Amino acid sequence: MNGNSVKVAGVDISTDHWIGGKRVASKQKFANFSPIDGSHLGDLSAGGKAEADAAVAAARKAFPAWAALGPKGRLPILKKFAEGIKARVNDLAAVETMDNGSLLMGNVHRVVPRAAQNIEFFADWALTLDGHSIDSPEVVNHVRYDPAGVAVLITPWNAPLMLTTWKVGPALAAGNTVVVKPPEWAPLTCSLMADIAHAAGVPAGVLNVVQGIGEEAGDALVNHPDVDRISFTGSTDTAKIIGQAAARSITPMSAELGGKSPFIVCADADLDAAAQTVAGQYMNAGQVCLAGTRIMVEKKIEEEFLEKVRGAASHMIVGDPRDKDTRVGPLIHKEHFARVAGFVERARADGAVPLWGGNRANFGELYFEPTLFANITPELEIAQREVFGPVLTWQNFSSDDEVIELANNTRYGLAGTLFSRNEKRAMDIASRVTAGTLWVNCFFVRDLAAPFGGAKDSGIGREGGTWSFDFYTDIKNISVRKGSFA
Ligand SMILES: NC(=O)C1=CN([C@@H]2O[C@H](COP(=O)(O)OP(=O)(O)OC[C@H]3O[C@@H](n4cnc5c(N)ncnc54)[C@H](O)[C@@H]3O)[C@@H](O)[C@H]2O)C=CC1
Ligand SMILES: O=C(O)/C=C/C=C(\O)C(=O)O
């Protein structure tokens, strides 16, 4: 491997940027540690303005030729890219687990295959974009989806490869070139992704990766004057900063942000399935934006259901995420651990009572016990703010109006989960909860054709299917007077 590299989980990974088809090193570095055991995984190049300028220039240079290929010309290259990800599922999964502490089995069976699907799904979909026309009395309106140009893609550490390819897939399929800024707490799989794209024949400059700290590399990219789209997944607070940069240059921005999603259990629900699903919210130590962290249970089944959840949660084994029996791995970083522990401490001080958990787990520095807080009133911080850890709250309700009010009583609106066997009731509640996605009798079932995103402070815009292309293209109408051609 050219340039600087590290070996993690037996895999060689470049610690340099990937700019214009070459590995580029910065003098300045940032250290990367594994949350599993605190081991030092390596030092990566920390980009700033110079690297952002070089990457945007490379992407701009590569844009005309990539755009000119059209969806059909790009298809075989992107399919090969997806095949390259599939061929390295085990490497990517093992590196992701070392880097961010997510469950190895989840990465092998779900997360990395989904990354490949993100690339191939949008490559296929792009074939269907052009060719629509709208007939009106005087003219025919030919609708075109032209690539927007250079897209900056910024992603968080909890699922970096999956969330980055969720943007790279449609952006490249639509004919854009991209600059990726991976999360500094889990930067490695995005570096591998660049090698895989290169080996698949993605031309130099079409996909660039600038490593570094958000406030430096990320800031330089979102403030760059020659960027046509900014797509961000991360926290609401960071989105507000990036949004100011986007507003200054009127650059379209999409934002997939945090959540504090309700998990509603009606008395007529399949309580065993619901209890298993509640316990599943602890997976990956609750570092899942979509997690249904506010459990709301109909009063008449509250005690029975609590015992079922207690039983299911007792199987949420805390441990090394490489172990197949582990369900709850580490929190990502000591700063994040302190943040989660702070929420728990303040919840206790506010009068919330842990029914279980509430402490550092007896496993390692960054491991936290699956925790459930009762004695919750809706205004408590623990019921309002996103913890992004294995911490759930428990509330009850007596009527549908009451639970809808509770569910909507946060600044977030990313997702929600509802268990009920009564279709009319379920659909009524689901339609009245403000959220981008509402799962009924299931959780985290994803179809890439469906819209995905958040309401209120959980985001701007939607990704998935046609919505991704609405964002990554300049939609044009060529309006031709009928009978005006010779
Ligand atoms: N809605 C969704 O699809 C998802 C949302 N998330 C949210 O992400 C958050 C956790 O991720 P974090 O990495 O802690 O979020 P974060 O907002 O701190 O960082 C996200 C990314 O933004 C970059 N960044 C930070 N400051 C920046 C700046 N000033 N300019 C440009 N880039 C900057 C970081 O380097 C990182 O790559 C949670 O709130 C979670 O809910 C996570 C996964 C999915
Ligand atoms: O399926 C998606 O597009 C987004 C998923 C989000 C996560 O995987 C997460 O927050 O862990």
From TrEMBL:
A Pfam match: Aldedh
Keyword annotations of the record: Oxidation, Oxidoreductase
Gene3D superfamilies documented for this protein: Aldehyde Dehydrogenase, Chain A, domain 1, Aldehyde Dehydrogenase, Chain A, domain 2
Top-level division of the source organism's lineage: Bacteria
Active site (record annotation): E256
GO molecular function, one term: oxidoreductase activity, acting on the aldehyde or oxo group of donors, NAD or NADP as acceptor
Keyword Oxidoreductase: yes
Family membership noted in the UniProt record: Belongs to the aldehyde dehydrogenase family.
Matching PROSITE patterns: ALDEHYDE_DEHYDR_CYS, ALDEHYDE_DEHYDR_GLU
Source organism per UniProt: Parvibaculum lavamentivorans (strain DS-1 / DSM 13023 / NCIMB 13966)
Aldehyde dehydrogenase domain segment(s): 27-478
Protein's name in the database: Aldehyde dehydrogenase
